Amino acid sequence: MKLYANKASPFARKVRILVRETGLAGRVEEVETVVSPIAANETLARDNPLVKIPALVTDSGETLFDSRVICEYLDTLHTGRKLFPASGPQRFIALRRQSLTDGILDAAVLCRYETAVRPEALRWKEWIEGQKRKIFGGLAVLEAEVGSWADEFNIGQVGTACALGYLDFRFADWDWRGGHPQLKGWFERVCARPSVAATKPG
Fold first, then answer.
1. 82 inside domain
2. Is the pLDDT of residue 184 over 90?
3. For residue 2, what are the contacts with CB-CB under 8 A and spacing of at least 6?
4. 48 is a domain residue
5. pLDDT 10s digits, 2-17
6. Which of 97, 106, 143, 188 has the most CB atoms at less than 10 Å from its CB?
7. What DSSP assignment string belongs to 28-58?
8. Looking at the whole model, is its pTM more than 0.70?
């Protein structure tokens, strides 16, 4: 299989962590891929018409995209501990948490585009602040929940690690740790996990 990814992409990082957690690294070739909202990548476009990463070309030649679909597909290809609970309340808790962390990341990536890609004279400060409110609202929910996680590490925790790592990478001056001591402690511990350490953005 071929995974179009980028070491800076938090959504690609979700897939890259899952690949390592599930023992699938030997079956997935990671192809470093540069994307931009204003410049075409013709190579990627041939496999993903949305020209977004991550995108996974399966062994049968089918292309899957976005991170949620790719992660759940890959989780069916191994016999070890599943990162997507199969059924019941735990499945929907994990899926809800994945949606929450994806929403945090959506808002953070939009802030990144606004501050790094849009010409400075056209940047909209109030819009950025609106995205930050979404991010910190999501962090407040995670802060309230993280104390019950213990050693649990499913797709919800994968997404949380990627969200916090991306905030560190792109918005270190926002100091998300200041108001979230439980998340801070959890993140310090999870950063030592081999799959998380190996995929640190850069």
1. no
2. yes
3. 28, 29, 31, 56, 57
4. yes
5. 999 999 999 999 999 9
6. 97
7. -EEEE---BTTB--HHHHHH-TT--S-EEE-
8. yes
